[in-house]
Amino acid sequence: MKSSKKPDVMQMGAVDKEIVKRLMGYLNRHKGKLAVVVICIILSAVASAGSSLFLGKLIDNYIEPLLEMQVPDYSELLKIIIVMAVIYIIGVVSGLFYNRLMAVISQSVLKEIRDDMFKHMQTLPIRYFDTHTHGDVMSYYTNDTDTLRQMISQSIPQVISSIVTVISVFVMMIVLSIPLTVFALVMIFLILKMTGKITAKSGKYFIRQQRAIGNLNGYIEEMINGQKVVKVFCHEEKAKEEFDIRNEELCANATAANRFANILGPMMNNMGYMLYVLIAIVGGALGVYGVTNISLTGVGVVTLGTIASFLQLSRSMMQPLSQVSQQLSSIIMALAGAGRIFSLIDEAPEADDGYVTLVNGEYIDGELKETNKRTHIWAWKHPHSDGTVTYTELKGQVTLDDVDFGYTKDKIVLHNINIYAEPGQKIAFVGATGAGKTTITNLINRFYDIADGKIRYDGININKIKKSDLRRSLGIVLQDVNLFTGTVMENLRYGRLDATDEECIEAAKLANADSFIRMLPDGYNTVLKGDGSGLSQGQRQLISIARAAVADPPVMILDEATSSIDTRTEAIVQKGMDALMKGRTVFVIAHRLSTVKNSDVIMVLEQGNIIERGNHERLIEKKGKYYQLYTGAFELE
User: Fold this and answer.
1) For the stretch 276-298, what's the b/e string if a residue is b when 16 or more beta carbons lie within 10 angstroms of its beta carbon?
2) Bridging pattern class, strands 555-559 and 585-589
3) Alpha helices (runs of H) in 488-615, residue ranges in sequence order
4) What is the C-alpha separation between 143 and 101, in angstroms, rounded?
5) ∠ at Cα 365 (362, 368), nearest 5°?
6) Whole-model pTM?
7) What confidence tier does 546 reach under pLDDT thresholds 50, 70, 90?
8) What's the confidence (pLDDT) of residue 518?
9) Hey, what domains does the chain have and what are their CATH numbers?
């Protein structure tokens, strides 16, 4: 399996701050909307705290005097009730508005993060995808971004609301009674200390949980892709055992994380009730014994209204603290997800120092010039330091001089590779699996960079050629075909978006794919789904070959291109392939040696070394490794 191990992005507080800072960078793109949200949150929080203060005035200034009146006058009471109703309505409307607006902001931020992730992912080298499971990469776009959605749309507004509410309530408290406020703050401080210890324990498990989700997704994706192999080899039980191990790891981390997180809610509620009772007892005692009450409004005694308001404020104080404690788990999980996302965005992009580009060319008065129209003449455009530009026609000469390469520095897999492919030649690579055939074509494409030696294309070091232009000049037909969701015509046009329908159909005829495509339900407009799962392997390969023909590159690489096609069809397709290869430099990798007989040069590889080279007749006469492979193949047939 590919490795999906990640560095712990949240081991240090400094890293946490960096993650928060980067998230704030996305939120800052929506400053205007966020300002409206903050205003609405302040209105909602102040309305909530203000209603508690009005409750005390309602009792002391309106309800108690009415109890002493022989003929009660309810007009003033009605006015204060209307004022309180308006305050409540302002709070409710503000809360509704900022929650709706935060939903818009959160989805916009997630869209921008996904855009940045996908855009950066396109710049990553092939090595990254060779060392990370596809399921783990997919987890960035699903689980990790979903944790951010919860944090941005729910946790952040609640935290801001809670902070504003706590400040508002604190001000209201000291307006009513400083001694009771000091008592309440001491109790709240003790509660928060207990909360902090529980949160610290749950945090590390939430980080492990996100990592375990990525590992599990990677394994599931691998099993789904290989389901036929699993069933053929009756590997179901072993696959289930491997799944159970990863699932158990996720379960253990998620259970530990949520066990601590789920304690917080009930604990904070019970602490809130305890604080409520204690304030009632202390406040009642102060009132009964006539203890002097000190407040911002002056000195007096603790009244029934003061105690009622303070009790309501204590609930208002504990509610946001309880909400924050419950949201801490979501915030920690989201920061863990954000850390994984930013680790992807921070992956070093594929280096490209090339400056030579590929352009369409035409000869005007015997001189090669650049043109915007398609002329079937390709030219290398060389910019020079003095501002001048020269053009060299692309001929298709490829040379490898003493090339060494290893996927890791300590293990070289290709040794002193020397290849000289002249324009229009067909070069074939044969050898056992793992001999290094596909690796050579990967180096020509610069999917990987060589450890030593030189690779030149028309005499130009390929390091000087811009990678996108280098790869545009190389058409590749792989053994593993990838078709994309869309019509057959769209798949044929994948390598050249400006190709006409007629050109695509002509390419399909060349590859012998036209006849079966026309038999599909909607012909060329048939929509392919699931990597063309409704087609046979041979049909998918024919579409792949036709797709390369549409791109019309000057150099072709055929990596086991006909391996999935039956022998009879192969003979027909080979004619089309020969027409496709005419006038082009072609590199062929094949296990069926019958497909390379007509190659100009055949190179036999063994353990990363070229041990034989020559055409078919010469190698047969030599009676070396190629002769053994060739005659052995026929003996097997």
Assistant:
1) beebeebbeebbeeeeebebeee
2) parallel
3) 488-492, 501-510, 514-518, 537-551, 567-581
4) 23
5) 35
6) 0.71
7) confident
8) 92
9) 13-345 (1.20.1560.10), 424-450+470-636 (3.40.50.300)
